[in-house]
Amino acid sequence: MAVHRFSASPQVHQPRISPVTAALPWLLGSYLIGAIPTSYLAGRVFRGIDLREQGSKNLGATNLYRVLGWRFAVPVALFDIAKGAIPVLVLAPRVSPSQLFALTCGIAAVLGHVFSVFVRFRGGKGVATAAGVMLGLTPAAIGVAAAVWLALVYLTGYVSVGSIVAAAVFPVAVVLLEHPDRPEILWLDVAVAAGIIWLHRANIRRLLNGTENRFGRRAAPTARR
After folding, report:
1. Rounded CA Rg of the chain
2. Torsion of CA 134, 63, 154, 130, to 10 degrees
3. What residue ranges of the chain have pLDDT lower than 50?
4. Helix (H, G, I), strand (E, B) or coil at 57
5. How far apart are CA 170 and CA 192, in angstroms?
6. Which residue from 190, 210, 215, 217 lies 20 to 30 Å from 23 (Cα-Cα)?
7. Where along the chain do its domains lie?
């Protein structure tokens, strides 16, 4: 009687994907969400102007307000906040429950807003988008920072003063109110705050020499060339 010997089929080893490689598509998606140039699109679509050539030439909601008013600036500011919140609350949890990964996705969105691939790597100063990120991760701390921002804008009339001081206050509020369990989270919060202050360096110069525009001052849009 013949005996049939069956050899075990060789195991196929699936290549392991490194955590960094697995995270890249989500980080890219977060960047692209942040890179949607909302202020630029609002100016182009509704008034046919290029906001990069208007007012302070910044692609943020504050400059949009100065050029086109509240009716356009408020929805754009809310959309910019959502650009930061969506990567943190929707994209990141699909990959990992880690707060550190969520914060990394949020930072990618802020970088997209500041350096948008869609408008030759120009953008806003990241305040609203960073606020959206932190609203999803550290709501108590961002609440304190928002209160500081509102108070200083009201008292001084300068959005830049509110943004700079609120950015400086935010990491302190994180330590006091949120108690992050990983030091990397705090250091990334500090990096975001420092980046926002650095992006306001031209505003700081104008504040020092008395040429910074106050919040209520409007700039008439110039004709498209």
Report:
1. 22
2. 10
3. 225
4. coil
5. 10
6. 190
7. 24-137, 138-214
Q: What is the pLDDT of residue 142?
A: 97
Assess contact for 84 and 129: CB atoms under 8 A: yes
Could you give the CA distance from residue 39 to residue 62 in angstroms, rounded to a whole number?
9
Q: Tell me the residue length of the chain.
A: 225
Instruction: Specify the residue for token string 């919140």.
Output: 85
Helix ranges (H only) for 99-225 are 99-114, 127-137, 139-156, 159-173, 183-199, 201-209
pLDDT of residue 120: 95
Is the pTM of the predicted complex or chain greater than 0.70? Answer: yes
- DSSP designation for 12: P
Distance of CA 188 to the CA centre of its chain: 13
Question: What integer pLDDT is reported at residue 69 of this predicted model?
Answer: 93
Residue 126 φ/ψ region, left for φ over 0, alpha for ψ in the -120 to 50 degree band, beta for the rest: left
